[in-house]
Amino acid sequence: MMTDGEFLADLQQQVSARSVATSDFSETAFASVVAEALVDSGAVPGFEPAFFVHRGMRVDGYAYTEDEATLDLFQVEYHGEPEIQSLTKTSLDACLKRAETFFERAVDGDLSVEVDVGSGVWSLARQLAQMGHSVVRIRLNILSDAKLSSAVKTLPTKKKGEREWAVRVWDLVAIGRLLSTGEPEPIVIDFVKMFGKGLPCLPANSGGAELESYLTVIPGDWLAEIYDLYGGRLLEQNVRTFLQATKGVNKGIRKTILEEPQMFFAYNNGISATAAKAEFDPDGNQVLVNRLENLQIVNGGQTTASIFNVMKRDKAENLDKVRVQMKLSVVRPDVVDEIVPKISLYANSQNKVSDADFFSNHPFHRRIESFSRNVWAPAAEGSQQMTHWFYERARGQYANASVYMTPAKKKEFEVQNPRKQLIQKTDIAKVLVTIMCMPHVVSQGAQKNFKFFAENVTGHWGEEGAAFGEEWFKGIIGATIAFRTLERLVGSAVWYAQGYRANTVTYSIALLTHALKSRKQDIDFLKIWNKQATSSSLNQVLLGIAKQVQARIISSAEAYRVANVTEWCKREKCWDDLLQSVDVRLESDLDKDLIDADEKEGAKRAARREQKVMNDIEAQTYVVGRGATYWSKLHKWASEGVVMTPSEMDFLGVAASMTSRKIPTGPQSQRVIAAEKKALVEGFKN
Q1: Which residue from 256, 315, 369, 639 lies 20 to 30 Å from 66 (Cα-Cα)?
Q2: In this structure, are residues 573 and 579 in contact, taking their beta carbons and an 8 Å threshold?
Q3: Cα–Cα distances in Å, from 195 out to 164, 272, 310, 423, 669?
């Protein structure tokens, strides 16, 4: 693990790379890097940039959760010094005071007339002037590259009337943990400390060495307080993605809590949860669970969030009468990543959560990860160095890849895998949904857009994912280069209003793509991949569109009486308006950057055929590598049950009888692997 000093240097490199890539100031780039990780982990519900500093006020971003009547404000305390600075209580108190002043001025309604029209903070001020009085909780998130002083024992909190104020600090240590593990802090539920006693439970069936199961009934006020402490981080990641796309207070749950709390247990199906570790205490004829580590709710997230929301919005005081049944599985830590997704999948099999909601375990990610490690990108103009576009299938992979390297090896790794070419799942989702001409979906935020993206990829994957081969990977990286280039160009444009850049970029690229479709053309993203850069002609066209988009989303939000421009950009009506309002001029010299649709489709078909061959080769390699003895054992196990079809038994028989001269074909190997997956689900163990 890196020391705090080493991580500070690494963090500053990340901020510098982001600043150069987006033409942002260091403070803005720092906020972007940290906020992305916070949103991805579920620690905060979202982040909309809104930089504003003026007369004892400051805000760098915000997120509003309407169902919880909660406003998250963000402030940056960035030093950029090579030595670790200290974040003191005096600094925290000053941050809270600046946030309070900003909020009160905005709610009073006079701040929106003082700031630049069209800026991100202008939208926020207008929105707060309209609905700020309904906010019951404000969380000030302080993002800092300093280290929280050991003298700070408690964080500032305040209550003004019915409104709660709380401060959360994401300092150097917390950010280091977040960026390396994907989690800001361990989730630890100590029932004794929080509620004065353990939670009675009944041991159920044992899952052997891998897990143990328990049944319990948790009071509603306990569950609400736990959710208040950890929020969306309690929800298993795939369930969280689903809920953020469909979030809302369940009316039936709300009615029961307010009118018949004692009937909640009878009316509600309860929740399913997992934990990595549990501490129990025998108490007479019952067992008490005193402490849980890494609690994850894998089914019943809607129930949990709704109970909390009713507590906050309706000031419900009878949650102590609510009882929620809970099935708890304590899973051995080393098999958590394997077992928990399966529990989550099967627990949600009767609900609306589709396979796409469990996309984090999809083979798509492993394939893209493999391409990103093995496919060399051509050297950019002016360089002889070929590089990789490093895909982080899990947050922290990039930092962890070089943490144990010697200085020389680490330098070599960073040259071959430059930080500016780091890409994540949400980056690919944003780019792909944009070129699908769905910019309003992209504008709905990383989680909702990722869910849409996951459903699309899952629907087109098929049995082998032939459509997602090496050429597809190169094309999506080419689109990413175009996306990031336009972000930088917009950020440095004289007309840029210091707000809505993300919306401006996705809408601009989507508008150009849409206009080209009518001519049966498309941007040649493979050409961009080959040059590792966009042409000046493409940049000029996109920037011209972006200027119109920026002006129109601001004016059309006003015309349609939507206070917050960012919220307006999330609506399909915004996309319809821009299609009618923006003049997409296709200059003649743009032709060299385009590809004919028929030619592109032919290349796609060839790429699919090539990927299918690669899939067959990989399958054969896997089956042969396992060996005939393994497949004989699996065949014997399958013959003693009824889980396999006759054709599946035949394919397993081919693998079991293979020799050095006779091995299964590619398609046969694919079927053997499918049968193996089925056997593993049904209980086969090697």
Answers
A1: 256
A2: no
A3: 21, 21, 20, 43, 56
